[in-house]
Write a structure and sequence with these properties.
13 helices; four-stranded antiparallel beta sheet; single chain; 2 domains; Alkaline_phosphatase_core_sf; alpha/beta; Alkaline Phosphatase, subunit A; 17 strands; Arylsulfatase, C-terminal domain
Length: 456
């Protein structure tokens, strides 16, 4: 019997979809990711199930949307021993190892991974004591801000510049830990206990390019006079979309200096170049161990995007493309020719995809759909939809190029048509062209647990 294919799952944090060479950015340098993407299936309309770190990551692990798996806010986590894709692959015969960020706050820090290497293990104190002042499980950015854990976005931008952040140091440990694990699994020349015959799922999760906007000095200097502000810097006319999560809008030249914005952008670009080099180190370690990476399944993605000052806002949480759309490709040249797929897909779909690619039985009750037919060039039965949720209150449904948003706190709705308005500058919710489509979006929203109500 042939061994199941090995898997290398590369994941960054907060990597905006349009800041990579393989997505057409002319400034950023990502030669390694570009090299992988050249032989991969690239999904040009991939979306996060939630534009916030923890819900997004737990939804990917669970193959479910936030409301399905119960992780809708920052600080929540999956119940212990949940049926994650890592656990499912172990049940299918895989050795699973995760180096770097998984972002669990619950008591189960493994969640199906047999090995955690240089991980971000952190259990919320609420699991051990009551009444603790440290609000590690606040469900929104303002709660973290009030607790003193998080700065507002303006201060974060003003701190941007060259340096060696704590995140950079953690990423270095994750990469070195992954390289050590590769040696032990494939070589182990001292004890001769290597197990290369066991199929491996190796995950490497880096913290960068997530803020702080601090980067290696020579790379920061390279990008400082090359990055350009996004053209649309005017706040969007909406109570949630029109401001940063923890302060008002940051308009260049009005609320914040343009040079400071460029400094933050330069550091962000520099950190993307850094992760490109770090992922290449892992790839080279596998090659040095004698592995043919053309026989591996290689996935690259991130958890969500980063607004980078577009619409005068920063970070994520919004359903603008810069925040909710993500880079995603799957490389498996042994079976699938390189191509671009423009159908709407979701990171939650990776669970079912991994199961089909590895011939592992798929658990029930998933929101995940296998991307394998799209990889094979067959989109005849594909529902061209992607879903994203945030905070138990906000919902995005995208069908084709039309993106509908519902904000249940005030009953407001927003609708963009990316075919006619790719910059997402006009709310078309009252446009006659979409009048017949609205009831269908509302019906789908209600099926997802989000009830439309008339705005007072």
């Amino acid at each position: 019997m042939n061994k199941k294919p090995n898997i290398l799952f590369l994941m960054s944090d907060e990597h905006r979809f349009d800041v990579s060479g393989f997505t057409g950015n002319p400034v950023v340098r990502t030669p390694f990711l570009d090299r992988l993407a050249k032989d991969a299936v690239i999904f040009t309309n991939a979306y996060t199930p939630s534009p916030v770190c923890i819900p997004a990551r737990q939804c990917i692990a669970a193959g479910q949307f936030p409301r399905t798996c119960g992780v809708e806010n920052y600080g929540q986590d999956l119940p212990p021993n949940y049926q994650t894709f890592a656990k499912t692959l172990v049940q299918g015969g895989y050795k699973t190892a995760a180096a770097g960020k998984l972002h669990h706050f619950g008591i189960d820090q493994m969640q199906g991974w047999l090995y955690r290497i240089a991980g971000d293990c952190e259990v919320s104190s609420k699991h051990y004591a009551q009444g603790c002042n440290r609000s590690a499980t606040s469900d929104n950015a303002s709660g973290l801000l009030e607790s003193g854990i998080k700065w507002d976005d303006k201060k974060e931008i003003l701190r941007a510049g060259p340096g060696h952040s704590a995140y950079a140091r953690r990423d270095e440990l994750a990469v070195q830990g992954a390289k050590n694990f590769i040696y032990e699994h494939f070589i182990d020349s001292y004890y001769d206990r290597a197990t290369p015959y066991v199929p491996l799922m190796l995950y490497v999760g880096l913290l960068n390019p997530h803020y702080p906007y601090i980067a290696e000095e020579n790379l920061f200097n390279y990008y400082l006079n090359r990055v350009e502000l996004y053209k649309n810097q005017e706040p969007f006319n909406h109570p949630f979309l029109g401001r940063c999560s923890n302060c008002g809008p940051l308009r260049p030249g009005i609320d914040i200096d343009k040079r400071d914005v460029k400094r933050a952008m330069a550091a962000y670009y520099a950190n993307i170049e850094t992760i490109d080099k770090q992922f290449e180190q892992v790839f080279k370690a596998l090659e040095e161990a004698g592995e043919d990476l053309d026989e591996w399944i290689i996935i690259y993605t991130t958890d969500h995007g980063e607004m980078l000052g577009e619409y005068a806002i920063w970070e994520k949480q919004r359903f603008f493309e810069g925040s909710v759309k993500v880079p995603l490709f799957i490389r498996y040249p042994k079976k699938y020719e390189p191509k671009k797929v423009d159908k709407n897909v979701n990171l939650a779909d990776l669970f079912a995809t991994l199961c089909e690619l590895t011939k592992t039985p798929l658990p029930d009750h998933l929101d995940s759909r296998s991307l394998v037919p799209l990889m094979a060039g067959d989109d005849s039965d594909w529902m061209d939809e992607s879903i994203s949720q945030w905070g138990g209150r906000n919902l995005m449904i995208k069908w084709g190029a039309v993106k509908y948003q519902l904000y249940t706190d005030d009953g407001s709705e927003v609708l963009f048509d990316l075919d006619t308005d790719p910059s997402e500058s006009s709310n078309l919710i009252h446009h006659e062209k979409y009048k017949a489509l609205l009831p269908k979006f509302r019906e789908r929203a209600e099926a997802l647990g989000f009830r439309y109500k008339t705005c007072n």
